[in-house]
Specification:
The complex is a heterodimer of chains A (177) and B (139).
Chain A: H1 10-29, H2 39-50, H3 54-69, H4 73-91, H5 98-116, H6 118-128, H7 130-143, H8 145-175
Helix pairs in contact in A: 1-2, 1-3, 2-4, 2-8, 3-4, 4-5, 5-8, 6-7
Chain B: H1 2-29, E1 38-45, E2 51-58, H2 63-72, E3 79-84, E4 87-93, E5 96-97, H3 100-103, E6 105-111, E7 114-115, E8 130-137
Parallel strand pairs in B: 1-8
Antiparallel strand pairs in B: 1-2, 3-4, 4-5, 6-7, 6-8
Classes of the chains: A mainly alpha (177), B alpha+beta (139).
Chain lengths: 177, 139
């Protein structure tokens, strides 16, 4: 990289903006269907195809979500849940299989309730000690398990169906540059 | 290619195992409301440690509905709070306010002496149960 060349080009900024816009638009479009979302799908695909740019996309996406919907308890779950998905994707980034990524996305959907129970453990522990923390988190997790199955099925199907066409579209787009 | 296949198989095993674990955990721990008439007790212990007891015969499936019945019976029991995404956050019981923001205080729900696993909107009502609301302060 030459001395005068910026680390992030205008094209990079535009791509990052487009990625965030796509995630937000899909999130809004699917907001009427509980626990069916394309955020997991896009974060996996963007990590696979746009590499380091996801490091900017995720925090900006989380900040926008907090600014639009309010920084409530669920927002703190976003701070670690989405980066975790991106981290897992990065580890397996060389795998090119719709089925594999459908499984990863499905496992993430199934684990989402358990991940989101962590703040309830912290709140419960701070108010009534360790046992109350564990009980609060466990109760919250168990109540939401049916929705974790919905999340898992949605993530699995969406990734399995969309992986190839979106990969093809991304490859064509990248070939154009 | 062979490595991909191995990862898919391992991933598939993880997914199926996780589904089985979640299914077992859910069916062993889910709370199911009981139909028909039930006799229950609702207790209220305020900040002065005095306890008031209310007997109720109800067909309500969930505790909040039973509490509404108790309010309608002019029993002296009352409650109020803020409805949110996960049900009501109880702030007042029998006119006494527990404010977490101001006093680190809250109304804790105990079911048969055990710390409640649900909010009052999702707490199933079972015959013979004792539901105790206690004014508590965070440690």
């Amino acid at each position: 990289m030459s001395k005068n060349k910026p680390y992030i080009s205008i094209r990079d900024i535009a791509q990052i903006g487009m990625m965030i816009a796509i995630i937000e638009a899909c999130k809004f479009a699917l907001s009427g269907i509980p626990n069916v979302e394309l955020t997991s799908f896009w974060l996996i695909m963007f990590t696979l195809f746009f590499g380091w740019k996801i490091v900017v996309v995720v925090p900006v996406f989380i900040l926008i979500e907090g600014a639009v919907y309010g920084m409530n308890l669920w927002w703190f779950m976003y701070l670690y849940a989405w980066p975790l998905l991106v981290g897992i994707t990065w580890i397996f980034r060389k795998v090119d299989s719709a089925l594999f990524w459908a499984i990863v996305s499905g496992v993430f959907g199934l684990s989402f309730g358990a991940l989101c129970a962590i703040p309830y453990f912290i709140i419960g522990k701070s108010t009534g000690g360790m046992s109350v923390g564990v009980q609060s988190a466990f109760a919250w997790w168990v109540t939401g398990i049916p929705w974790d199955f919905v999340h898992c099925a949605g993530n699995f199907i969406l990734m399995f169906v969309l992986y190839r066409p979106i990969k093809y579209a991304f490859q064509r787009m990248c070939d154009g540059y | 290619m062979k490595d991909n296949k191995r990862k898919i198989i391992i991933g598939g095993i993880v997914l199926v195992t996780l589904m089985a674990v979640l299914g077992i955990v859910y069916f062993r721990n889910r709370t199911v409301p009981q139909s028909g008439s039930k006799n229950i007790v609702i207790e209220v212990t305020g900040s002065n440690s005095a306890t008031e007891e209310y007997q109720l015969s109800t067909e309500a499936a969930y505790l909040r509905l039973a509490m509404d019945e108790l309010v309608d019976q002019d029993s002296g029991f009352s409650y109020d709070g803020t409805d949110g995404e996960y049900g009501i956050m109880i702030e007042y019981i029998n006119g006494e306010r527990a404010s977490y923001a101001e006093d680190n205080a809250y109304w804790a729900l105990y079911v048969n002496g055990e710390y409640g696993q649900n909010g009052c909107d999702t707490q199933p009502v079972t015959d013979g149960d004792v539901y105790a609301w206690k004014y508590e302060k965070a440690q």
